[in-house]
Amino acid sequence: MAIQIFGTSKSFDVKKAERYFAERRIAVQKIDLKEKGISKGELESVIACLSKKTGGRNEAIELLADKRNKDYSLFAYLDDADKEGKLLENPMLLVQPIVRNGKDAATVGYDPETWKTWN
After folding, report:
1. What is the rounded distance in angstroms from the CA atom of residue 44 to the CA atom of residue 27?
2. In terms of C-beta density within 10 A (0-12 exposed, 13-18 middle, 19 or more buried), how is residue 96 classed?
3. pLDDT digits (tens, 9 = 90+) for 27-54
């Protein structure tokens, strides 16, 4: 199991996700969104996984955007075609944590119920 956690060290939900996997002795790779951001390929992979659950690519992109972020208004009124680029440009707009299990599964936010099924 190759778990990646995308988020910042100040996010409480990221800390809870790290603790969840640490308590189960599951190794994780943490990617700090503030330092590195998220690559286009990683974002594409997460969107593809979420699209299976939400029913569409645009819905998955909307799910990734943090509506509580002070810069959300910059994202909300963009055309659907431009929203993915805005998330790449400003990774702090992403909901945290984004947890990815290989290329087949991903979650947004703290979601231990889904993580339990990743064995």
Report:
1. 23
2. buried
3. 999 999 999 999 999 999 999 999 998 8
- Nearest by Cα to 93 from 107, 72, 73: 72
**Strands 28-32 vs 98-101: parallel, antiparallel or unpaired:** unpaired
Domains and CATH numbers, the chain: 3-104 (3.40.30.10)
Contact between residue 18 and residue 76 where contact means Cβ atoms under 8 Å apart? no
For β-strands 3-7 and 28-32, DSSP reports them as: parallel
Residues 2-29 have pLDDT tens digits of 899 999 999 999 999 999 999 999 999 9
Length reported for the chain: 119
End-to-end CA, the chain: 8
DSSP 77: T
Dist CA 39 CA 37 (whole Å): 7
pLDDT at residue 1 greater than cutoff 70: no
